[in-house]
Amino acid sequence: MSTPLLVWWRRHSCLLGRDSSRPRFLTAPRRVSARQTKSLRHGFNATTLAGLFAVSLAAATPPIVIQNATILTVTKGTLNGSVLIRDGKIAEVGERVTVPSDAKVIDASGQFLMPGIIDCHSHIAADSINEGSVSVSSMVGIEDVLNPDDISIYRAVAGGVTTANILHGSANSIGGKCTVIKLRWGKDAHDMIFEGAMPGIKFALGENPKRAGNPTGQRIGAGNVQGRYPATRMGVEDVIREAFNEAKEYQQSWKDYKQKIARGEQATAPRRDLKLEPLVEVLEGKRLVHAHCYRADEILMLLRVADDYGFKICTLQHVLEGYKVAKEIAAHGAGASTFSDWWAYKLEAFDAIPYNAAIMMRKGIIVSLNSDSDELMRHLNDEAAKTIKYGGLNETEALSLITINPAKQLKIDKRVGSIEVGKDADLTIFDKHPLSNYAKVEKVFIDGQMYFDRSSDLAERPERDTEKKKLLDKEKEEQKKNGPAGRGRPAA
Amino acid sequence: MKTLVIAFLVTLPLAASDDDSFLIRGATIHPVASAEIQNGSVLVRDGKIVGVGRNLAAPKGTRIVEGKGLHVYPGMIDSATEMGLSEISAIRESVDVGEIGKFDPQLRAEIAINPASEHIPVTRANGISTVIALPMSAGGGGGGFGRGGGGSIITGQAALVHLDGWTWEEMEIKKSAGMGMRFPIIPSMGGRFGGGDFPGARTFAESKKDYETELRELKEFFENARRYQKAKAAKERGFQIDLKYEAMLPVLEGTEPLIVMASRERAIRDAVQFADQQKVHVIIADPRELGKMGSELKSRNIPAILGPTLALPLHEDDPYDAAYALPDQFYKAGVKFAFGTFDNEFSRNLPYQAATAVAFGLPVDEAVKAVTLNAAQIWGVADRIGSIEEGKSADLMVTDGDPLEAKTTVKQLYIKGKTVDLDNRQKRLYEKYLNRP
Q1: Cα–Cα distance between B305 and B78 in angstroms, integer?
Q2: HSE value, Cβ hemisphere, 13 Å, CA-based, for B188
Q3: Residues of chain B with CATH 3.20.20.140
Q4: Is the Cα dihedral A47, A49, A52, A56 positive or negative?
Q5: Which of B359, B350, B357 is nearest to B397 (CA)?
Q6: Does B426 sit within 8 Å of A353, measured CB to CB?
Q7: Domain B76-185+225-385 carries which CATH code?
Q8: What is the pTM (predicted TM-score) of this model?
Q9: Do residues A459 and A193 make contact, with C-beta atoms less than 8 angstroms apart?
Q10: What are residue A25's phi and psi, to 5 degrees?
């Protein structure tokens, strides 16, 4: 039973640094707040000094050496050795590395070090997912509703994930804008955003966008949405084409305006259209399209629409029948981000096969495995292991599905996705080989900072239990004093 | 000469048919009931295991299966599924998981199992030879298991079936292995903010009232069933057959367990109390926490069917690994348990659910037992399946490694000594499209 005080505690304990599963060291005073980092960008003001101070402290974090690990670099083979982390970056990788005198040394004997896992399709850390009332909802974006308190963030880190693509839902042919985040649990929403990652937008094909158009179709995450166009796959194509026709006109209106200004003519700027701006960015290659799709026909349709309008589909998401049109996907250059073995939960998932990832990889597509689930996200390494059986991928190929490949798809592979000198120190330590179902995550680093440590998590549990009990007791006392707390709606 | 011919004719019907008689040799045998045997053999005759050990001699002419480098385990048992009852969970027409009505003990899952379901060969391909098909509380709607709240209380008879057979009769191991039941609960208010603030949401007081009503109805139903039992035994005048109460007799007589869905500690406590009062056998299904109920379950020999290990914690402030570590808690408390997926398309991942429990403390041998012998014991069929022992059905899984590891491939599967086709729709699609020009 959830009492109001307990609910409040669950919601806000993160802010107090007392969440049941949040490592305490994350509340250390080194935290750089969003306000501080923003002030750095906006020139000097009263808070600038504090901001600089915080940054310099962060930079002064002592180097870390992880020793004696089996290092699965993914891109440069596997070796037994060490990694030196300095200023949040991987400074050295090898059988022997420099051990600075002030370094914090972590002995990982018998353990496995791999790049932090990247989930190319997630909905954690978002307060809402679907703006389902219209079939083109490109004016909304996940960045505006990022929720840094979502406990799923910590749980995902505890599963070795360090980066995730947070997507809008799939109720719309053209959905909302997406944001890539690093799972810096304890930081605020702004500081979770993967700085420099290209923005994205969600498209969706098939049953989900058309169901909102079917007044009898109840299964959609969009709530009680009135029936609306489109109600078929034919309509979905049309909605996308109509939207891009509008976007092209809008793009042209700005070009005309800018030309007039350049010629020194009088001109009035077009009215900004927040729905069409992101689509213009798609046309100009400045925003990545992540398209939810299942069936081969709809996949091919979208590739052809994109060809016609001159833009690229960055990733096909789910893409359960991708294996049927792998040749066409490879020719377009789209990436494919799929499930390991989901099938049969709806009609369009009935031809899904667990060999999908392997076939698509063999046919030259960059493939990743994603979760689309707060739960599955916690063991993407297990999902990758399945491709060894289903389709015969080797261990490195299997690991690439959850590391370097999603990094390439999100165009962040210069920063993350493998263990290489110069890349961000986003690293996960497993106690056994990560492709074993017996493996569990021991430690996780993002930008060289430890965001999960199983031993600390275990050690701090008794204290948290005591704290929770104290709060419950306090609430009981208050209830005795004031009578039972009212909650929910009053009885009708 | 003549006598010899007669002897031959006489022995012919007794001779092992090639179909379900063979010797696997040179493999690592994992009998589960005893220690593993390196370079061992299993002798199967007429679908039964007749020998397990080293250097077994097979009668002349016995088909030999070379098992070098391979491992032999008993076929795995998934102790809770929708197998054959649901094809595509989002399509109402293909789902027969939950009926309308609060008390439905007369319903039989067995007769609704579609033996041609595509899920069966897909599940078999990962070494699962036997499942419980469990009618669930779904209020007659679409797919998915209702984890409490609304719908049926007594859901119907669960069937224990082999994943092989032309008809459900041929699949049958036990037509009614237990009676499905959802224990009434006060549902949590849910939602991130703990509020049930949506149209139709019930207040706590309303929910509590629902719960009390359901408890009363449940008690009355059992009282009525007992009256029926007495009236039948006494051959009372005017006694009429009632299919619902008739179906309850094995439960009241203690020959059939109640499979009670109870997630939370409080529901488990309620269910145990109810079993005490009603003097019936219960199996706790899909518990999500153990709390202080370990010794209560152990002292009463109440077993549990644990749901997916790969699950989110029940509460926001539970440890992140609450579900991963739950099987080990049950083990340490001395409670007997088996694993169930409570699913259909993911039944094939049963072994990986067990493996995660090992990562978080459960001894590996116990994890294997929980998908084989423990399940057979809980369902009262340990004399027939669940381990590699003489006299048991030759339900055998031959693998190229540890079956709890996802990368391991099941090479052969035998059900009642018969080689099962490991091909399925997904493999056919794979081959077809891999070879697309």
Answers
A1: 10
A2: 18
A3: 76-185+225-385
A4: negative
A5: B350
A6: yes
A7: 3.20.20.140
A8: 0.90
A9: no
A10: -65, -15
More confident position, A425 or B148: A425
**pLDDT over 50 (residue A169):** yes
Q: What percent of chain A has pLDDT over 70?
A: 83
Quote the domain boundaries for residue A380: 117-416
**pLDDT tens per residue, range B229-285:** 999 999 999 999 999 999 999 999 999 999 999 999 999 999 999 999 999 999 999
Whether pLDDT at B163 is above 80: yes
What is the percent of chain A with per-residue pLDDT over 90, rounded to a whole number?
80
Say which CATH superfamily domain B14-75+387-437 falls into.
Urease, subunit C, domain 1 (2.30.40.10)
Count, in order, helices (H) and strands (E) of chain A.
Answer: 16, 16
State the CATH number of the domain containing residue A320: 3.20.20.140
| B33 interface with A at CB cutoff 8 Å | no
CB A164 within 8 A of CB A122: yes
Tokens of A44: 């000097």
Q: Is A463 inside a domain boundary?
A: no
Alpha-carbon Rg for chain B, nearest whole angstrom, is: 24
Of B122, B311, B406, the CB nearest to A389: B406
Contacting residues for B304 by C-beta, under 8 A, at least 6 apart: B283, B284, B285, B287, B297, B330, B335, B336, B337, B338
SS3 content of chain A, % helix, strand, coil (to 5): 35, 20, 45
Among B252, B263, B343, residue whose Cα is nearest residue B304: B263
Rounded to whole angstroms, the Cα distance separating B328 from B403 reads 19
Edge-to-edge strand ranges of the sheet holding A367-369: A117-122, A161-166, A174-182, A200-204, A288-293, A315-318, A335-338, A367-369
Residue B76 DSSP code: E
Residue A307 is given by DSSP the state: H
Q: Which of A10, A219, A490 is opposite residue B317, by nearest beta carbon?
A: A10
* Residue type, position B433, single letter: Y
**Do A461 and B319 lie within an 8 Å CB cutoff?**
yes
B87·A155 Cβ contact <8 A = no
Query: What is the per-residue pLDDT for A428?
Result: 98
Residues in chain B closer than 8 A to A468 (CB atoms): 317
- For position B19, what pLDDT does the model report? 83
Could you tell me the strand order of the sheet in which B172-182 lies? B76-81, B128-133, B154-162, B172-182, B258-261, B282-285, B304-306, B337-339
Cα angle B416, B421, B425 (rounded to 5 degrees) comes to 135
Q: Classify residue A94: in a domain, yes or no.
A: no
In a domain, A27, yes or no: no
Q: Does A343 reach chain B within 8 Å, measured CB to CB?
A: yes
Burial of A243 (0-12, 13-18, 19+ CB in 10 A): buried
CB contact under 8 A, A343 and B426: yes
Per DSSP, helices labelled H in B30-87 are none
- Name which of A389, A394, A464 to mutate to probe chain B: the one with the most chain B Cβ atoms within 10 A of its Cβ: A389
In a domain, A342, yes or no: yes
Residue B102: the pLDDT is 95
Which pLDDT band holds residue B140 (cuts at 50, 70, 90)? very low
- Separation CA A228–CA A137 (nearest Å): 13
Question: CA-CA distance, B343 to B322, in Å (whole number)?
Answer: 20
- Is A439 in contact with B359 (Cβ distance < 8 A)? yes
Query: In terms of C-beta density within 10 A (0-12 exposed, 13-18 middle, 19 or more buried), how is residue B66 classed?
Result: exposed
- Locate all alpha helices (DSSP H) within B177-321, ordered by sequence: 204-233, 243-252, 265-278, 294-299
- Residues B129 and B395 sit within 8 Å (Cβ to Cβ): yes
Number of domains within chain A: 1
Least confident range from A7-11, A360-364, B180-184: namely A7-11
Least confident of A386-390, A464-468, B187-191: B187-191
